[in-house]
Amino acid sequence: MKENRNILLISDLVGMGTISSTAMAPILAYMGFSTCNLPTSLVSNNFGYGRYAMLDTTSYLRQTFPIWEELGFGFAAVATGFIPSDEQAALISRFCAAQAAGGAKIFVDPVMADLGKMYDGLPLSIVGYMRKMLGVADLCYPNYTEACFLVDAPYKEDGVSAEEARKMLDGIRAFGAKSVLITSIKVEGKASVAGYNAADGGYFTLNYDEQPLFFSGSGDVFSAILIGHIMKGEGLLPSTRRAVDSMCKLIRLNKDAGDPYKGIPVEKYLTVL
């Protein structure tokens, strides 16, 4: 029987720039996977510009899931990102649970905030939607700001202690996530990714040299690299290390980019992954 190499990306589709699914698909394709897309919304441009148009696709999702069930579509993995409503979270989480029962791995990126605040125009109610998604996650990877919102912890610009990081990881696990990463977090003063690996019950912290640059969609690129290595059979710790190192390299290569809100043009740099 032919191996299932299909990975479904459920997130927003952004018209301007290499962000969200348009950043993830080329990376996963280069790594040998076939990607399918299910947009949760159509967004004109990155939220960071301050003004954007957004078309909610809830009715489209409501029609799509039963058709896919009837046709017997199945995926090796499902990766979720931006979800704009409670109804979508309910629809998507039920679909993910059904796919998980068939052997799919579920990856959840609770896209909603960064740098201590929600993305422009997003309501605080989105935190509840994302908590609902954690219940179906084999692995979730909020950034530090998102983790603070998820567990109702104060955002500390100077970072947290190792004990505080572990408490945040446990708080996220309490919503049902199996393995957890918190990205872009300072632990004991060092730029880090803090993690819990359900496979061995171990906690870990990976340090890296922080790059003084910002690019929209960096989390999406990190996600794709991480998922690709995990789906190739590599463990969480080495997969996270590979994703972190690749991201640092991509950011350095794009240090002179003119508009960081357009993201990283990943197609130009696939060979460095």
Distance between the termini: 30 Å
Number of strands: 11
Principal-axes geometry comes out as: globular
Helix proportion: 25-40%
The percentage of residues in β strands lies in 15-25%
* Class inferred from helices and paired strands: alpha/beta
H/E series: EHEEHEHEEEHEHHEEEHH
Strand order of the largest sheet: 3-2-1-4-5-8-9-10-11
- Total helices: the number is 8
Radius of gyration: 17 Å
Average residue-wise pLDDT = 95
Low-confidence stretches: none
Query: What about the largest sheet?
Result: 9 strands, mixed
Describe it:
- There is one protein chain.
- The strands form two sheets. Strands 3-2-1-4-5-8-9-10-11 form a nine-stranded mixed β-sheet, with helices on both faces.
- It has eight helices and eleven strands.
- It starts with 5 loop residues before the first strand and ends in a 20-residue tail after the last helix.
- With 273 residues, the chain is an alpha/beta fold.
Compact overview of the structure:
The protein is α/β, with parallel strands linked by helices. Helices cover 37% and strands 22% of the residues.
Q: What's the SSE blueprint?
A:
Elements (H helix, E strand, L loop, with lengths): L5 E9 L6 H10 L3 E10 L10 E3 L1 H14 L5 E4 L5 H16 L3 E4 L4 E2 L2 E2 L7 H9 L4 E2 L3 H8 L10 H12 L5 E9 L2 E8 L4 E6 L10 H14 L4 H18 L20
Helix pairs in contact: 1-7, 2-3, 3-4, 5-6, 7-8
